[in-house]
Design a protein that fits this description.
3% of the residues lie in helices and 55% in strands. It has 351 residues and is mainly β. The strands form 5 sheets. Strands 1, 2, 4, 6, 8, 9, 11, 13 and 14 form a 9-stranded mixed β-sheet that branches. The protein has a 4-stranded mixed β-sheet with strand order 10-16-15-12, with no helix packed on it.
């Protein structure tokens, strides 16, 4: 095993000439370039500073990555962060040349007292195209935050979870101030009105306690959301507090796959099938018919009692070599419908 040799890296970079490196540059991991996305010398540390947060706040952040090299790169399972206040939510495990990816992290300041710096090393590996030698480099990520103990938010975020389209939901958090500013107050609130409504009640008598309630709009657009509520205060140190708001509005009818189904490299005369699931968030239903099939594509409606979940089989049996693309419309007995794009490529039969 070895780290990226300095003589090898310029060769790997796309359209970047070899240049001499000084001593200072040699100390910077080449893997840091995945987070800057350029061939220029990266900073010694890839930093994200959450700033000053009320104790109990939960926040997320996405480190974006770009593979600027002319070879595939694997991202190894990140090491456990140096503080349990930070956790890895999701990461891209492999990037082809010029691909993009990400590493999602979460910080929970209920586990932090005062200022905190968390190291998060991320290891990247590849193979030398000529020698097949394993090459690696470890990026240096750093997360910073300050947990302010005189302001506490419980729970630390507004989490709606999954809510059926057309329905509403409400979540509340409490904001408690125990500092020395006797007239501390929440003076205004900002939020996305097409997504939710927010009410602030307080302060409670005898203490500075506010209740913030977010109510999801019944006509909010379907899909996942990652939003925020901004609480303006008269505190010169923290004039604005930010609450993370997450959830998903499930559409009336959806398909439990991506909106595109691929059948790649199917031999002419052979049949391949894939099972999908049609999901309703509102009522029980049956699949009535599927329109738009043909050119080797077919849909098989499986016998099933009315339910909120219905299986459906899509088959591809190409009759000729080449690509095929169709848009299927799945209709239900309740009058609702959902579209699914399917693609396939027919290839010559094996000899």
């Amino acid at each position: 095993m070895s780290k990226f040799p300095l003589t090898f890296l310029p060769f790997l970079l796309l359209a970047v000439p070899a240049v001499a490196q000084d001593t200072a540059e040699r100390k910077i991991p080449w893997a840091n370039k995945f987070f800057t996305g350029t061939a220029e010398m990266p900073p010694p540390v890839i930093l994200h500073d959450f700033g000053t947060l009320p104790k109990g706040t939960i926040k997320t952040y996405r480190f974006k990555m770009t593979n600027i090299y002319a070879f595939p790169v694997e991202v190894k399972l990140p090491k456990v962060p140096s503080c349990i206040c930070v956790s890895i939510l999701e990461y891209t495990g492999k990037m082809e040349p010029r691909d993009t990816g990400h590493i999602d992290i979460k910080i929970d300041t209920s586990r932090v007292e005062g200022p905190k710096t968390v190291d998060l090393p991320i290891r990247f590996e590849c193979r030398d195209p000529k020698t097949r030698e394993l090459l690696w480099s470890e990026a240096k990520l750093e997360i910073r935050a300050v947990s302010r103990s005189d302001i506490t938010i419980t729970p630390g975020a507004v989490v709606f979870g999954t809510v059926p389209a057309g329905q509403t939901a409400a979540q509340s958090v409490s904001v408690v101030y125990t500092g020395r500013q006797r007239d501390w107050a929440i003076t205004a609130v900002e939020y996305r009105k097409e997504l939710m409504d927010v009410k602030v009640v307080g302060p409670a008598r005898g203490s500075i306690v506010y209740e913030v309630t977010a109510t999801l709009n019944a006509n909010a657009k379907a899909g996942r959301f990652d939003d925020q509520i901004i609480l303006k205060t008269n505190d010169p140190v923290a004039p604005a507090l930010t609450l993370t708001v997450t959830g998903e509005i499930q559409p009336p009818l959806s398909i439990a796959v991506s909106d595109q189904l691929n059948f790649r490299g199917v031999e002419v005369g052979k049949k391949v099938e894939l099972r999908i699931t049609v999901v309703s968030s509102a009522r029980k239903f049956k699949v009535k018919k599927v329109e738009g099939a043909g050119d080797g594509f077919a849909a098989v409606i499986l016998p099933q009692d009315a339910n909120k979940v219905q299986p459906l089989t899509i088959t591809f049996e190409p009759s000729k070599v080449g690509p095929v693309k169709k848009v299927l419309t799945i209709e239900t007995d309740s009058g609702e419908s959902v579209k699914l794009m399917v693609e396939g490529v027919g290839k010559e039969p094996a000899q």
